[in-house]
């Protein structure tokens, strides 16, 4: 690897450290990133940990229609799924010939003159960490997206994952919160302190506060799931992230982000419980014993879950539950 690339990677790390402390403009990251991969357009977006929606943090060169597509419809495209599963930067050619027939290529990339590109799903905490955002790069010359550029982006990916981690920057956390969402700090004693802007329309339930305390007592860094059921079909949609220990504070803390939402795909509360236990590797017999219902009934719930979520098998259901945080807290 060239010395200039190594220096650029180090510079990205320095800029991210300053940006997280709100001491640098995130857009300043493009200059060293261009020395790693000479892109013609690029974008970094933040993922809302509660809704899964993306919002651009900084954009260099994409026009608004394409920028909007990348942060909305593209997230349900096959090529995004490939990038998320591989956990490394992928190029158009890595997806295969089918990519050049997709809507994103035919309607957006080809017309703009982009012949190659990278998609990198950003994570905080390494390859197995939680998804925090997305970076895309587009190139007019396909050869510019070579293996050296991919290797450089792979090395800088963990740093970029921290850049868009909303739990590390209160300003970006506030920016992502919708009117029906709230943020809190919770300590190991269960004390709750509002951390978001203005009023806090959502008070966390005892179930959710207990989940915060259990996370602090464990070695885990984060947790996503559904807390208590509220009115009708509304649930607490919860994202909990451990904060680094701060010496002046007497106990450890988490950031709790919470909003009200319905369960996905029309699944029922019982199906949520079954899915939660499937994600832990339990058999139908074990799940039945835990929920005090027969294994045959559990089997029917599993069939319903496969149909509703569109997953092919039990293993895919377990991956879906973990990846998307479709689990019941406190079970």
UniProtKB/TrEMBL annotation:
Location of the HTH luxR-type domain: 260-325
Protein's name according to its UniProt entry: Regulatory protein, luxR family
UniProt keyword annotations, A-Z: DNA-binding, Transcription, Transcription regulation
GO molecular function: DNA binding
Pfam families reported in the protein's UniProt record: GerE
PANTHER family: DNA-BINDING TRANSCRIPTIONAL ACTIVATOR DEVR_DOSR
GO biological process: regulation of DNA-templated transcription
Source domain of life: Bacteria
